[in-house]
């Protein structure tokens, strides 16, 4: 059965959000063409080397509005790398103990990946060369984003129910790999959806040319990437959000003082940085207030890396910068995936240091700093948190705002915020490191890499 394109897609508004498209794709799933996925398909696709995605890859099709050919190139690039990524996820799930995969929740995620791969197979042996095919393909991307929006929540419940058959260490290893893969898969799909709505081809089909011109003129965005992202602006936005929650819960809110170079810009993904900073500020605000130090400001230093240092960092085989490597006392660094690579030598970067007077981190907590906390909860605690319980074992009000780029807040308060935040930072060659002075305070170093100069 062929895809029935949405009428609204044929005449899109440039500002229509991908979320609305995803919702419509979900309701029209029965019209999306699928193909049967065989074990041979999975083995063949999983045998292909994974493309080491970079931010530069996502910008290479040029600034919007994209020409028709550039839009086709974006669609074909997306189609070129997504099927093998989905096949790798299916194989990874199947490598879990059989009794774990048989759990209804884990089995549901396995089925979701099979479904998404089945929607891509009809396009796998051909190129997208018409606007109709591109429109249909964009619906497939929207369906993919919607299908996997609650993957981590469902997996967490499945691992809880099957915890007798899989160790916390195995869960952590699986989720480390799975979260990083999910970041890339979702980002590739969302990038094409965003480029679709800002393309010249769909401007020509739009009945509202003036609206399209207003929304695309002088934009610094290439898809979901802001090529002139100002970390200081994101910091202030996150400060306001976290501060309001603190004021409601505690009656006070610490202040944030920006130092360094607040005018620094970098090409990066705003929703990723918002998630990371929200998580880090939430932790700093809570520690500062609970230590009775709310009158002491939280100091955030914005430090763009000199070009010479960037070249040195890029020549280092480790994804962590020299700055970060000296600041990881007590933390457990993750193993960098060989499928993730840093950007070009000329890529500018920035390091943010978040310094608080919240008393530091207990030495007993350090070994667990990067673990997924829910792997150590008992069943009653886990069920209470997944149900949004508000008692002593339930969610803290601050935890509710941790959903963000993770795709929802149902897992808020389960201790996955820091590991996921670090996954977002490390995916493109950055990182998070922690330096604690027990009894005094904590310094957190967030390193980001950009895409360099984008013409």
Automatic annotation (TrEMBL):
InterPro entries: AK/P_DHK_N_sf, BCDHK/PDK_N, BCKD/PDK, HATPase_C_sf, HATPase_dom. SMART domains: HATPase_c. Its EC number is 2.7.11.-. One of its GO terms (cellular component) is mitochondrial matrix. GO terms for molecular function: ATP binding; pyruvate dehydrogenase (acetyl-transferring) kinase activity. Signal peptide: none annotated. Residues 305-344 are annotated as: Disordered. Residues 268-452 form the Histidine kinase/HSP90-like ATPase domain. Residues 315-328 have a biased composition (Low complexity). It is found in: Mitochondrion matrix. Keywords: ATP-binding, Kinase, Mitochondrion, Nucleotide-binding, Phosphoprotein, Transferase. Belongs to the PDK/BCKDK protein kinase family. PANTHER family: [3-METHYL-2-OXOBUTANOATE DEHYDROGENASE [LIPOAMIDE]] KINASE, MITOCHONDRIAL, PYRUVATE DEHYDROGENASE KINASE. This is Protein-serine/threonine kinase. It comes from Cladosporium halotolerans.
